[in-house]
Specification:
By secondary structure, the chain is mainly β. It contains no helices and 20 strands. The N and C termini lie far apart (78 Å).
């Protein structure tokens, strides 16, 4: 039987992904790819994508397998070696003070006394952690000032439960936010969805459920 041609294999590395490509081989029906001592994988395409570990060398053997094995024999193996790249360095997230703050009875509604809310890893989600509320109510506002466009209170009057989020709106008509139970909470302001939540410390905003109206 005639041995069919050996594929000319190229390897391209992107992070920990190695992509093998080759030209189609005449009389080949599929291609067998072996990585190290693993069992071969067979594909009909002329490409193979492999995901490995970072900073690791891998050796691939690729053979062309004929459609008619009575007339043709499997090709010799094309061997290619590729090394994955180093793992990307992920900078740790560092919260920074935002323009938003908590104002209310706990600050005597006084100018310049707002409790600063900090950025989180979620865009447009801000938090003031471990805020102790012993009485009264609060709102969320920007830059320690009353501005109807950046002054958020409840859409609907009523008290709010811990670990639930509630719709808020801007403007003078918005309602004060009064906890159902006073205590210490992480106060979250979700600007993207216009919501506020009092979350029990140790839990996350993702744990909060919809408090409805």
């Amino acid at each position: 039987a005639q041995v069919i041609a050996t594929p000319e294999v190229k390897a391209e590395v992107n992070g920990k992904v190695i992509t093998l490509t080759w030209e189609a081989i005449e009389n080949a029906a599929q291609y067998g790819i072996t990585v190290g001592t693993e069992m071969p994988v067979f594909v009909e395409e002329t490409t193979y994508v492999f995901t490995g570990e970072y900073e690791t060398e891998y050796t691939f053997n690729v053979v062309a397998v004929p459609a008619d094995e009575d007339k043709f024999a499997v090709s010799e193996a094309a061997t290619v070696t590729a090394t994955t790249e180093a793992a990307p360095v992920v900078e740790p997230f560092v919260p920074v003070a935002s323009e938003w703050g908590v104002v209310g009875d706990l600050t005597n509604w006084a100018a310049g006394k707002d409790i600063v809310m900090y950025t989180t890893e979620t865009e447009n989600l801000f938090v003031a952690e471990n805020v102790t509320i012993t009485s009264g109510a609060f709102k969320v506002r920007a830059n320690n000032e009353w501005n109807d466009k950046k002054n958020y209170g409840l859409k609907f009057a009523g008290k709010v439960y811990a670990d639930q989020y509630y719709a808020v709106e801007t403007g003078g008509g918005s309602k004060n936010i009064t906890p159902m139970t006073y205590g210490t909470y992480d106060v979250y302001f979700d600007l993207a969805n216009e919501r506020v939540a009092l979350v029990t410390p140790g839990k996350s905003y993702a744990d909060a459920t919809d408090g409805g109206d």
